[in-house]
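User: Here's a chain of 355 residues. Predict its fold as tokens.
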Amino acid sequence: MLPLSLLRNIAMLEKFSALAVLFVTVIVLFTVAKAATYYCSVRCFLPSCCDTPISIWVINTHFIESVGIMAFAFVCHHNTYLIYGSLLRRSYTRFSAVSHMSVSGSAVFCTVLGLAGFLSFMNATKGDLLNNYCVDDWVATVARFLYACVIMLTFPIEIFVCREVLEIVLSRLPYRVISWVRQGRVKRALSRFLFSPRHSSLPRHVILTLVLVLFSLGVGLTTDDLSIVLGFNGCLMATPMAFILPTASYLRLTRGGRSHWYSRDRLIAWAVMVFGVIVMVIGTALSIEQAVQSFSHRGTSRLAYCPDTSSAHQSLSTCCSLIDSTVNLTLHVPLCDCSSFCHNSSILTSPDLYC
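Assistant: Prediction complete.
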């Protein structure tokens, strides 16, 4: 990620971003295609995947975290000025078209990926959907590799934004912050690093990029649960940008004007801002709790619906439990013949079989 992050012009990421979009398209198509493969095996080997009422799927403790995650998926406010500045022929109309096309495309990808993945695994859906697929599924392995490529190709965009903010902060620092330094050579070096005009110091550009990339890498190495990262980042960072700061800015700009505090637009803004505060506080707390639980229960376990390569066939008790195991499940669709998953079909007709 470092070479792309060291670039100075965000427009140079154009082709890499297009490649990332292509990879995302492949991952979405993979999820849709694999839904037919995993639909029956999940329901036969893991009947508990579908025994939860539909209302519980929507109204539960993870709902607020989900709002934060979706806010993180769509928040792009912090990239606005850099993206607008990279347009070939800048205009409000062109930028509006780019924004609508990007957000609409993201909504389609999120909807298709979410529906295909959730309908495949239901209650067994993991925070990282790609972890639901069997380890020996080589197509899923390719999809995981492509997803890693997507992260590497899109991460530099966030580095551009963060580095730009740091550049602005450093450019506004008062000179007295280094007045305590007595060594003349050190003071001159600090002065060149801190007070050089924006985007004019190559050493500052490289050092800021290295610090940001290494810090992100250190945070990423602390967990292997993607849902924790998305939930925490979404609730604590994306929610204020999506719900709180825009409405707070609107309320501040319209204060003292012709609109009363009880006007329709201001009441809607207040409601959205309060909703954002609730999501941020509760969602962040739940994400921290989930992170603590994840660290105390680390480890991997074999997925029940993935074939066990250590045995030649499924055991008698397993085959027994597979027969008609999908009956009376939530959203049950009678498409699965669970007995077909027993590798040794002769035991199904054994007189000693008691189900």
